[in-house]
Amino acid sequence: MSERRESETTIIARDDIATIINRVGLDRLMDEMIDRLRRAIISFDETATRVRTRDGFHYTEPDLGLLEWMPVIQAGEATTIKVVGYHPNNPSAFNLPTILSTISVYETGSGHLAALADGTFLTALRTGAASAVASGVLARPDSHILGLIGCGAQSITQMHAIVRTFPIDQIHITDASQANVASFETRAAEVLPDGVEVRAMPVEQLMMSADIVCTSTSVGIGEGPLFDDLPTNPWLHINAVGSDFPGKVELPAAMLRRGLVCPDVRRSATRLPCGCCSSRPTGPVSAPASLSKTSAKIRSIRTTWVGLVRWHRLPSRN
Question: Among residues 24, 183, 248, 302, which one has the fewest Cβ atoms lying within 10 Å of its Cβ?
Fold first, then answer.
């Protein structure tokens, strides 16, 4: 019996993820992810958990696309590799999300594939939770206005995580797609707290009013930044999560120069071509080693979903 178990591979498909959501609820699932992520960052030990810089393929044929893999090994336990695909034509061409993901877990001792999971929702969940953890450290505790630049699928989990962490009573939104703006409240209804006002507005007004901003866009290569170096509240915190492809530019370099910049993985953020700004900033960028190192640890928790699945006792499918 033991030998049979060791050779099994647990497969967690999209329907299984939906089962977890139905059993646990989105609020509890998000709260648990934020808590586990925060504790994983605090307890991170780089001698026990080794995180490699993401790598992958960028291509333009048959369509513009990106496949990247993100490996992490926990000494004596497991190796986890997440593969993420970014294909901006997916919604119109294939009725699929722009971002797709698969997560695989391997037994370190034998190399056996222990688990394989659809990572699309899990990636969005973790990314939202990461923004909440970062904002919890870097934003004002009394932040009550959230700005969302980009109202696609990722914006929902960004919003959900922030409203679970801060006393948000206003959400200001903008998107190049008016359809995304018009459908935002409907898509967010399940996780949008009662009494929170949602207002669409130009990006200039959004940047001047928000306490926290989350950018999760599909800005085209060479089309950014999303806005000029606009006036903002001096305490503004930005979670910029959409620059996942070389040449995609969300934030203006001038804003980075005068701000405190905390990349999640410094090696990836400084690798040319830079994805967060149009060029390497020519002026000083404040990025203290301690904060940057702490932020880098976010990558170490990609296996958190395994603990969630085991804790909720989801039956395996072999």
Answer: 183
